[in-house]
Specification:
alpha+beta, 3 domains, Phage tail protein beta-alpha-beta fold, Jelly Rolls, 21 strands, 24% helix
């Protein structure tokens, strides 16, 4: 299991199951850097009001705390752009001494965090970013003119300076995120891209089909799956914190295929009782539905029973 910030947040809010808790506790003990990262998250959680259901990262003081703790000892290493024969080095303003290598055409800046912890970057507009280990952020020289456009590969926490005249846009391999001034975290996983909003309003959408989008408020999360083009969202501040599907449509699809999709989208293993059931087909559309409602609806339509086991669901 890959331990992500989202899983750690659920753990701190006592919303993860026993198996996940054990994985997280083993991960914390495995390496000192894991323990340090967890303790930083725990610090913010314990300093929130008791009725809070989330970790807040959107305050200036929180960012300054991380910057002050790390500035003394750690440095960035950055990727060189080698499209041209020569490169020049520019020193930019971050919370620590940092170097950026840019191509001789001055069009693009690329920042890569090769250290073992998150690193702080301040963009020309004053926006602050915590760039996760192994992640890359890039932007053009014209960033601070008509639009504020950055590209992200990996994971980062953004605290975006407010500017109603110039939207801040983050593109990843799969998604595009549009904001005016807010704080949020984006992470790219193997099969999906995840976003969690800590303040303000965020518009999160598929990169190649911007009509497939969702508007998120403080405390809400969304997830986009590249293969199925499915967009999920949930409210982390409510008692029912299940992801809900924005739009899911099947036309004469085999049940076996649908179950494979559900394993990826909902992380649930569904087994089919026999070969006849595997060949069953269905045409259906779901809007703003959670996994339980979707499964119940499909089984009702196909006259199937649901048997829930510890590690899988059996349809028979």
């Amino acid at each position: 299991m890959k331990i992500t910030t989202e899983l750690l947040t659920d753990y701190l809010n006592k919303q993860s199951n026993e198996a996940t808790n054990k994985e997280i506790e083993a991960w914390i003990k495995r390496e000192p850097k894991n323990k340090r990262y967890f303790e930083e998250l725990q610090f913010y959680w314990h300093n929130e009001p008791e009725n809070s259901r989330q970790i807040e990262f959107d305050t200036e003081e929180a960012l300054k705390s991380i910057q002050n703790k790390r500035a003394a000892k750690k440095q960035f290493r950055f990727k060189k752009l080698l499209r041209y024969a020569a490169v020049i080095t520019l020193l930019i303003a971050t919370s620590i001494t940092s170097y950026i290598f840019v191509s001789t055409d001055f069009n693009k800046v690329i920042i890569e965090n090769q250290m073992l912890s998150e690193k702080s970057v301040e963009l020309p507009d004053g926006s602050k970013i915590l760039l996760a280990q192994g992640s890359t952020l890039s932007y053009s020289k014209s960033f601070n003119e008509k639009e504020r456009l950055v590209q992200l590969s990996g994971e980062a926490f953004f605290n975006v300076s407010k500017d109603k005249t110039r939207p801040f846009i983050i593109t990843t391999k799969r998604t595009k995120t549009r904001v005016l001034g807010t704080s949020f975290r984006i992470s790219e996983e193997n099969s999906y891209t995840n976003i969690t909003v800590y303040s303000g309003i965020v518009e999160f959408m598929e990169n190649l089909n911007t009509s497939n989008k969702v508007k998120l408020l403080k405390g809400e999360s969304a997830r986009f799956f590249e293969r199925t083009k499915v967009l999920l969202s949930k409210n982390n501040q409510t008692s029912n914190q299940e992801f809900r599907v924005k739009h899911l449509e099947y036309k004469n699809a085999k049940l076996e295929t649908i179950c494979k999709d559900f394993k990826e989208i909902f992380n649930t293993d569904i087994k089919l009782g026999n070969d006849r059931i595997k060949e069953l087909r269905i045409s259906t559309t779901f809007e703003n539905q959670n996994f339980e409602n979707i499964l119940q609806s499909i089984c009702f339509s196909l006259d199937l029973d649901i048997e829930k086991n510890n590690d899988h669901i059996l349809l028979k």
